[in-house]
Design brief:
Blueprint: H1 21-40, H2 42-59, E1 69-74, H3 76-79, H4 90-103, E2 107-110, H5 120-132, E3 137-141, H6 150-159, E4 165-167, E5 171-172, E6 179-182, H7 193-200, E7 210-211, E8 226-229, E9 245-250, E10 257-258, E11 269-270, H8 271-284, H9 293-312, H10 317-340, H11 349-381, H12 387-395, H13 397-400, E12 401-402, E13 405-406, E14 409-421, H14 423-429, H15 432-452, E15 456-461, E16 464-469, H16 478-508, E17 515-531, E18 536-541, H17 543-554, E19 566-571, H18 572-578, E20 583-590, E21 599-605
Parallel strand pairs: 1-8, 1-9, 2-3, 2-9, 3-4, 17-19
Antiparallel strand pairs: 5-6, 6-7, 10-11, 12-13, 14-16, 14-17, 15-16, 17-18, 19-21, 20-21
Length: 616
């Protein structure tokens, strides 16, 4: 929104502050709240992680099997052949280390915890094989949080004494237990199993935890890492293993299995495979796959401001709501497409919250401001306009109001002035309270008719009614002015008809029947509100209103009637608008009180041409 001042009546969004800084502040506040809430509110953070897990599981771009990491798996078929199942046969592991060494691997990692003794000769054999191997062999140790007895910790420390080690503890999300991050160094400085192997291979190992960049295989059913059962190692071509870091670990169901983003389909991921993903990421020098926080914050701010701008554009709710949701769906689809093309993981809860928050907060503010403005406007015109006119005034408030009150206007409208014949006699016949009730019933019926014909009752002067057709919203074409004149005349005809039923009821109550006189004239006016804070009313100034009042008064001198209970006298401009549509008798040119020039007038007749009154 332009911050420069705009001329009165030209603001695109009436009632809004003209400066853009307020809305920039709103967008910024929404962005900060979105970033904070999605990190502090567990369900929101969990939703973010779940969406990312789905992307990782189904849309991770395919890549060739990693050329520097190979898995040597200890599966159920192997354990069925070993004499010692748990702990794993140490003699077999010693032979396996020798076979891998002979195959020319770069390093060996054994993801098996040596926390208790087996046969002394086999334990010594494995320990000696590790110590004397020509390639680095890394074992796993346990951090303090690992549930081991003192005896187990003591044996583990002794077995690994002098050997390169790394902890194999996995960082699991506290909300759902999913492994998404890797901690390369424990708080006490102990490197992770994967970090120690990466260091040995010459890779730069970060000090801070990082999100694991999970790899996908080259195609359906093809794993991201070459994996061979341990029992096949002796017969494998050496080229399949040479130059790689070999990770030895179990792949038994229910043993060292963990939930990861790759487990969305329901299958757990073996611990040794998780270690392989973290190791490969460090060997490749790949960073956090997530969108950097600075870019995330920029995206959140941009979407927050976009949401504010959309709401400020003012589309109706039935458009704004589906447009907001469709746009949100498009954002999520775009995030998925970016990741599928090799881009970063874009956390979508904060951007989504910013988008919807910007829209909702701005729309709520506009709605509240609109209700306040509407209440003020309706209170100002409560005694003047019908509901349709009030709605029209509200729709055109940007050009209609100035300083919280109607702006004075020059317009062409039709004024209706009516009075009761014989009202003095009725006043003398009734006590004050019955008189007021009777008059209220009459005025209520007449006001309903005026409102039904889109007129505006401005005031009552005793029993007289002053109404206008074509205000407060000015007409811009002659056709609209003529339509107002026709509505005014038809309104007067209907007022006379209404007296038929009113008089029957009054006669039944012992009251005398009455008639009315109506004067109608069309012409230029100045319309606006007069008064101050204590009292303000909408008024008409100009000769047209005076002429209508004089026409009503002149009707006393006309012997003919429009209908049984009504005389309707109209000026020439009004007659030109209804000629051929309603029946009338020319009265002639008359000199009205207070006017220098004569005025040509007509008496409208009800029923002379019924087809002209169709629809009444």
């Amino acid at each position: 929104m332009d911050s420069r001042p705009t001329p009165a009546g030209k603001r695109l969004l009436p009632g809004l502050p003209s400066g853009r800084w307020l809305w920039l502040a709103v967008g910024g506040a929404v962005a900060v709240a979105a970033l904070g809430l999605t990190r502090l509110v567990p369900p929101l953070r969990s939703a973010d992680e779940t969406f990312n897990d789905l992307l990782v599981s189904y849309l991770t771009p395919a890549s060739p099997q990693h050329s520097r990491v190979v898995l040597v798996t200890l599966g159920e078929d192997l354990f069925a052949q070993l004499s010692c199942r748990s702990p794993v046969d140490r003699g077999y592991l010693a032979d396996l280390v020798g076979q891998l060494e002979a195959a020319g691997v770069r390093a060996i990692g054994i993801d098996v915890l040596f926390d208790q003794p087996t046969l002394l000769s086999l334990d010594d054999r494995l320990r000696d094989r590790i110590r004397t191997a020509s390639v680095p062999v890394v074992g796993i140790t346990a951090l303090g949080a690992t549930p081991l007895t003192d005896r187990q910790r003591g044996y583990l420390g002794g077995f690994l004494d002098g050997l390169p080690t790394g902890h194999a503890n996995l960082a699991k999300d506290r909300l759902d237990g999913t492994v998404r991050w890797h901690v390369p160094r424990a708080p006490d400085g102990t490197p992770s199993f994967a970090a120690r192997l990466a260091e040995i291979d010459g890779a730069d190992v970060p000090d801070e935890p990082f999100r694991i960049a999970w790899r996908a295989g080259p195609g359906p059913g093809k794993p991201p890492f070459a994996a061979y059962p341990a029992e096949l190692v002796p017969v494998l071509p050496k080229s399949w293993l040479a130059g790689r870091v070999a990770l030895i670990g179990t792949v038994q169901t229910g043993v060292d299995q963990h939930r990861t983003p790759l487990s969305v389909a329901g299958l757990s991921t073996p611990g040794v495979e998780i270690q392989a993903h973290a190791l490969a990421q460090m060997l490749d020098g790949r960073g956090d796959p997530s969108l950097p926080f600075a870019w995330e914050a920029a995206l959140v701010l941009a979407l927050s401001l976009a949401g504010v701008a959309l709401a400020l554009a003012g589309p109706p709710t039935w458009v704004l709501a589906p447009l907001s949701l469709l746009s949100l769906f498009g954002l999520w689809a775009a995030a998925a497409a970016v990741f599928a093309k090799g881009g970063p993981l874009v956390p979508m809860m904060a951007p989504s919250a910013a988008w919807l928050g910007g829209i909702a907060l701005t729309a709520a503010h506009l709605s509240l401001r609109e209700r306040t403005d509407r209440r003020t406007l309706m209170r100002l015109f409560a005694n003047h306009v019908s509901q349709p006119i009030a709605e029209q005034v509200w729709r055109e408030r940007a050009t209609f109001l100035a300083g919280g009150r109607p702006r004075p206007q020059e317009l062409t409208a039709t004024v209706l002035f009516s009075d009761i014949e014989g009202f003095t006699t009725i006043c003398e016949a009734l006590e004050p309270e019955p008189l007021i009730r009777w008059l209220e019933g009459y005025l209520d019926a007449m006001v309903r008719i005026v409102g039904a014909h889109e007129g505006v009752v401005l005031r009552f002067v005793g029993d007289a009614i002053l109404a206008v057709f074509g205000a407060p919203v000015a007409r811009t074409t002659q056709a609209e002015i003529d339509a107002d004149a026709e509505r005014a005349v038809r309104c007067a005809v209907q007022m006379g008809r209404e007296l038929e039923s009113l008089n029957r009821r009054w006669q039944a109550e012992g009251l005398p029947p009455v008639g009315i006189r109506v004067g109608i004239h069309t012409g230029p006016l100045v319309a606006g509100s007069l008064g101050g804070l204590r009292h303000m009313e909408y008024s008409l100034l100009g000769d047209t209103a005076n002429t209508a009042a004089r026409l009503e008064s002149h009707a006393k001198t006309i012997g003919a009637r429009s209908s049984r209970h009504c005389r309707i006298v109209i000026g020439e401009p009004t007659w030109r608008a209804v000629e051929g549509k309603l029946d009338g008798l020319p009265v002639g040119e008359v000199a009205l009180k207070g006017k220098r020039k004569t005025v040509r007038i007509w008496l409208v007749r009800d029923g002379a041409e019924p087809q002209a009154l169709a629809g009444e």
